[in-house]
Design goal:
The protein has 192 residues and is mainly alpha-helical. It has one domain: Tetracycline Repressor, domain 2. 72% of the residues lie in helices and 0% in strands. The chain contains ten helices and no strands.
Length: 192
């Protein structure tokens, strides 16, 4: 529900009804709606952060490791289709403790990704000052498919759906190709 309506658009009684519980029983586990929302975000962000951190241990990782990371993320986001929209909403709503929660989970992943990309950027022809944008752009490439899946399905009219095995395979192939073109070696040629 948080992914569809955002924090302010969800009442605790709606969440309880959706989970077939009573509102007071939710308070046995969470002190407030905010505590529940933070737990949902943390539960959703931790596996994503873990995949990225575990996959990018070498500096810089081989391109095959980045492709493997993309594969794991595509599978994880397909298995949990609410995560990308939830993360997008959380980024848009980042005030107070939500901003702190995002910073706690995303900042280390962003810093590590930026550090790795900074090492790869020169060989790929990128100026160092563009690495922060490259990092955020790669984040957008990976997550936007899952954030915008309903719109993509309507716009493309793909038979079988964008979340079908074929649709997900195409997305993975697209990401691998896009990442290779973005950060793969350029044989000494600088991007213009």
């Amino acid at each position: 529900m948080f992914a569809l309506r955002g924090f302010d658009g969800v009442a605790l009684r709606d969440l309880a009804r959706e989970m077939e519980l009573t509102a007071p029983s939710l308070y046995n586990h969470f002190s407030s709606k905010q505590a529940l929302y933070e737990a949902v975000l943390e539960r959703g962000l931790k596996p994503i952060a873990d995949v990225i951190v575990a996959s990018w241990r070498s500096d810089p990782p081989p391109l095959e490791d980045i492709q493997a990371t993309v594969g794991k993320l595509v599978v994880h986001l397909a298995e949990h289709p609410h995560l990308a929209p939830l993360l997008q909403r959380a980024i848009l709503e980042q005030d107070g403790s939500f901003g702190e929660l995002l910073a706690r989970w995303l900042a280390p992943v962003y810093r590590q990704g930026s550090a790795i990309l900074r090492e790869m950027a020169g060989e790929a022809g990128w100026d160092e000052e563009l690495v922060p944008l490259l990092t955020f752009g790669m984040f957008g490439l990976v997550f936007s498919y899952f954030t915008n899946v309903a719109g993509l399905a309507k716009l493309t009219g793909w038979k079988g759906g964008v979340m079908s095995a074929k649709g997900l395979a195409n997305q993975r192939r697209f990401l691998e190709e896009a990442l290779y073109r973005l950060i793969g070696p350029r044989d000494g040629k600088k991007k213009s």
